[in-house]
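Same chain as my last thread, 110 residues:
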Amino acid sequence: SSFHFIKRNAFEDTLRLSEILRDDPEDLIHRAVGWMLREIGNRNLETEEQFLGNHYHRMPRTMLRYAIEKFPQHEEKDTSRRGLAGVSNLSKVNRERGSTDDQRRQISLR
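reply #2:
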């Protein structure tokens, strides 16, 4: 598990795995990756923010929601000043990504 490395502040492998698994069709993988990113943020918020700033636009909604779940309320509102403008407006991201996620679910159900 990458949590072993996260607990020791070694985030590189987890971030690489997160990039690889970002496009996985399985919702449970999205949840797991979002959880790993949130755990990184619990230890080093700047590292998580940097990753999200580079990848939020391609992340599935579930992954993003799990990743920012424990952001402090003021952090969520203030993200636009740190280059995470899309993350701060999660409802807009959800609307934009909703059809894509729905299409992925339909494909995986076939």
